[in-house]
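Throughout our pipeline, every protein is held as a single compact record rather than as scattered files. Nothing more is needed to write down the fold, since each code stands for a local backbone conformation. The record that follows is passed on verbatim for readers who wish to inspect the format.
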Amino acid sequence: MSSPVKKNRSLKVEGGKKAAPEILSPASRDFMGGQAPAALDSPAKTPKSPHAKEGLPKIAEDKKPDGATFLLVVAPMMVAVPASIGLGMAFAMFTFGTTAYYESRIELVVQWDMHYAYLAAALVGMAVRLINMYPMRYKSAIMKGDSENLRSNMYVYKAIGPDAAEHHVVFDDDGDVGKYNRANRSLHHMVENHAIILASLVLGSFVFPAQTLACTAIWGGGRLLHQTLYAAGGYGKHAFGFLLAFMSSICLEGLLLLVAVKGFGVPIPSLAGGSEL
């Protein structure tokens, strides 16, 4: 019985040069009309990213953020400044809205000791904001402010194992694939930050029903703008949508915090110029 014939898959010599090895069987080539797919016959297209060739930008050590400064200065500001803005918006709504109605609802909240839950929900909003911003400490150490779509990457991958290429793997940011990736990045961003919205739908709407509805509607519109502009225009074009969603979310957080503050009996100066609220 004759032994099976082994196909020679070694490099062919054409014109004194080594040609690429056959990677398709004759049957596969017959199925495709005798032609190899274009992706196999031509080199891959270079993405339009400015970092497609050089990879991650080189950032000098003295330009990288200091860990202590981030933890002691930047991180507290990420919590305190948005919370203060949100609380200020809540004060204005409380003062110039139907104050007597809000007061009556807060009294019910306090009777059931639910002001503790309002404070807890506001703290969840602050914690989510801080945890979402914390990776920025390291992002600025590997990406520049003008790195464009490279900044869309939540993760930076690296191949491992024998003969692995020594480069990082990031999102494809070109064409429809890039739009798809950025649209999904916006989706992840929404999931990362929507906890305060859910808490406000349950708690905030009891005291501030109209404000909760309005802020939630603005948040939803902002998220839609964030996704469509991000996908179509790339990194940076989503800023307006981000601003709408962010401001509405911290306003909802401020409304929760206001109920907690009043529930615990903290005096609040009136924005209308009268006595404390």
Summary: Residues 64-145+176-263 form one domain. The two ends are 101 Å apart (CA to CA).
